[in-house]
Amino acid sequence: MNQKTILCVDDEINVLRSLKRLLRNEDYQLITANSGTEGLAVLAEQQVSVVISDQRMPEMTGTEFLSQVKEKYPECVRVVLSGYADAATILDSINKGAIYRFLTKPWNDEEIRITIRQCLRQHELLEENRNLTQEIKLQNAELSKLNQRLEDLVGKSTQSLHFSQEVLASIPIPVIGISAEGIIVLVNEAVDQMFPELRDIHLGSDIKDAFSNEIYVTVSDCLSGTKPVETDSLDVFGRQVLAHCKRLTNGEELRGCVLALEEKP
């Protein structure tokens, strides 16, 4: 883990020297600045985890300084150190600087150490949250791309399906699709045109209820695979037709069959 940096801002040199002596053995880098302007210059050039600022400084107060830090470096944890612990100063610092802690002068050495450790932990949490948020954004962007690809594929598949249905509907030979369970799932337009007697066929009907026993036996033999010949000569409403029945499988799984009726010349 990279060493963290603490920035202390105070216009009193003796205060900064005291903080350096107090924190010289801690496991982080301590840098100082004599004003808010100087502190902002440091922040512009160096990554800082925690800023501890005096409240009453010339030209720029601690509240004004930390307000700019909040705007430019929101993940930098901010602490006010002031010898004037009146309620108005505290409230103003909280509202404008979004401070994490308010410490008073003279300070308690152990309180300073504990507060800085807590601030460093808070900074780590903010960094983890930022990284997690960024990771979620990247994952969401990738998910959005995958969804778009899926929508494109579905769109293309739907177009292909519609086209296939149009082609099937326009074939001048009566075609009937039958599921593995013997249920009618497809009837093209040529069935109605060439065999008006079959116009009452409804999707979802059982093959044995829609056709003659002769056709039912042909389809049943086709589905079961007991009859190797895929073409039969049948009588359909007094007309001789060739019934072409083709089994449809997916590997070893039976999906159904297609029955095509061709009137003999």
Automatic annotation (TrEMBL):
An example Pfam family from this entry, by short name, is Response_reg
Q: Which residues carry this modification: 4-aspartylphosphate?
A: D54
Residue ranges of domain Response regulatory in the record: 5-120
Recite the UniProt keywords alphabetically: Coiled coil, Phosphoprotein
Name the source's superkingdom. Answer: Bacteria
Question: Would you kindly state one Gene Ontology biological process term found in this protein's UniProt entry?
Answer: phosphorelay signal transduction system
Recorded coiled-coil stretches: 122-156
Could you identify this protein by its name?
Answer: Hydrogenase transcriptional regulatory protein hupR1
Q: Which species?
A: Gimesia aquarii
